[in-house]
Amino acid sequence: MKTINDFNFKDQRALVRVDFNVPQSADFKVTDNTRIQAVKPTVDKILNDGGSVIFMTHLGRPKGKVSDDFSLKNIVSEIESVLGRTVKFCGDCIGDEAAAAAQNLKPGEILLLENLRFYNEEESGDPAFAAKLAKLGDAYVNDAFGTAHRAHASTSVIADFFPSTKFFGLLMAKELDAVNKVLKDGERPVTAVIGGSKVSSKITIIENMLPAVDNLIIGGGMAFTFIKALGGSVGNSLVEEDKMNLALEILGKANGEKVRVYLPVDAIAAEEFNNEANHEEVDINHIPEGWMGLDVGMRSRQIFHDVILNSRTILWNGPLGVFEMPNFAGGTVSLGNSIAEATDLGAFSLVGGGDSVAFVKQFGYDDRVSYVSTGGGAMLESLEGKELPGVKAIND
Ligand code: AMP
């Protein structure tokens, strides 16, 4: 993996693609600056070498139109305070103004270019647009893991203009390392916990992970498709009828790969889909008619706990229940505690993909696991075994 640590940036202007697509309040204040914090090591390394940094990023979905609501000038002060450095801003990402700003940049300085997605050419991967961006810098650094699954002008096409001076930033390197630790060189036993609502959205991940894991824990709404396919009565629980055969196929494949699969053995079932509904703990195969399983039960939590505490590498994607409702968050909280405990005992734990990061933060587990991915879709695709365009562009 060619990272910025393999290069001295002295007197070099580094064009750094970052993912500053941060959430904002109605008055444009940044409400979560994790993605800005995450690129600090990359910025520090380049500037300490005596180079300068030109940030390229998108923000939101301006759909090819210039719009104040999506302007990056709204987040300049947040970037400055997180990085502890002054940030210059240019109101365009290409053209004369950008060229002049880049030209005038001195070693140790940072320039932020305006939203790349003010141009449709960014998302369409237009080579002429990528060439205009490329002209602004001497080296290209990709540190935008959250956007690495997109083949856009600034995330992949641009790399062609820097055949010998293109590098992974330190955040990208960390994310890719974390995936490799789980899929390739994880200390065994390796356990994947896959929860969430639907089998259909997790199927490729499960299939790709089977050769890499020793244990597979399945929870959340998706577990009921498996339970029903195995002959259980699941009442009104979430089921994808058309995925029941697929569920059985996965179980067969897991068996062939000698992967132990753990499905919930009990559930907290409710009369309705709301927090105040009547609920009780029932056997997973006997959810009463009209009721629905919204969380895993106590025996399941204990079984999952034992598996996790015996694991050395753990991947967690997706909640075990409807964690948004306090009465059905217990299984997910218990799982978070088990993973945190295993991590304290020396296991490597990675949380990532889709919305997983949201609940890990909500329940305060982000500091208690080894690594929380900054990329939702990009992490999901990595776990699916796909080579991300942003990664391929640097590796090629
Ligand atoms: P995903 O985006 O696929 O990771 O799914 C996350 C969603 O799954 C969350 O919003 C949960 O509320 C939902 N979920 C988890 N367990 C269940 C369940 N037993 N029934 C319905 N939805 C669930």
Would you kindly provide a written description of the structure presented here, covering whatever features stand out?
It is a single chain. By secondary structure, this protein is α/β, with parallel strands linked by helices. The chain has helices spanning 34-37, 40-49, 76-83, 95-103, 120-124, 127-134, 170-183, 203-209, 223-229, 244-256, 298-309, 330-344, 356-362, 376-383, 389-395; strands at 13-17, 52-56, 88-90, 110-113, 139-142, 166-168, 190-194, 215-218, 260-262, 266-270, 279-283, 292-296, 313-317, 348-351, 371-372. It has two domains: 4-173, Rossmann fold (3-Layer(aba) Sandwich); 186-383, Phosphoglycerate kinase, N-terminal domain (Rossmann fold). The protein contains 15 helices and 15 strands. A six-stranded parallel sheet has the order 3-4-2-1-5-6, with helices on both faces. It has a six-stranded parallel sheet with strand order 9-8-7-13-14-15, sandwiched between helices. It is elongated. 51% of the residues are buried. The structure holds adenosine monophosphate. Adenosine monophosphate is lined by residues 196-198, 201, 220-221, 238, 293-294, 318-319, 321-322, 324, 354-355.
Number of self-contained structural domains:
2
The oligomeric state of the chains shown is single chain
* Count of discrete alpha- or pi-helical segments spanning 4 or more residues: 15
Name of the CATH superfamily of the largest domain: Phosphoglycerate kinase, N-terminal domain
Q: Would you tell me which CATH topology of the largest domain applies?
A: Rossmann fold
- DSSP strand tally: 15
Q: Measure the end-to-end span.
A: 11 Å
Question: Structural class, from helix and strand content?
Answer: alpha/beta
Choose one word for the global shape. elongated
Biggest β-sheet, characterized? 6 strands, parallel
Following the backbone from N to C, one meets helices and strands in this order, namely EHHEHEHEHHEEHEHEHHEEEEHEHEHEHH
* Beta content: 15-25%
What average pLDDT do the residues reach?
96
Indicate the percent of residues in helices: 25-40%
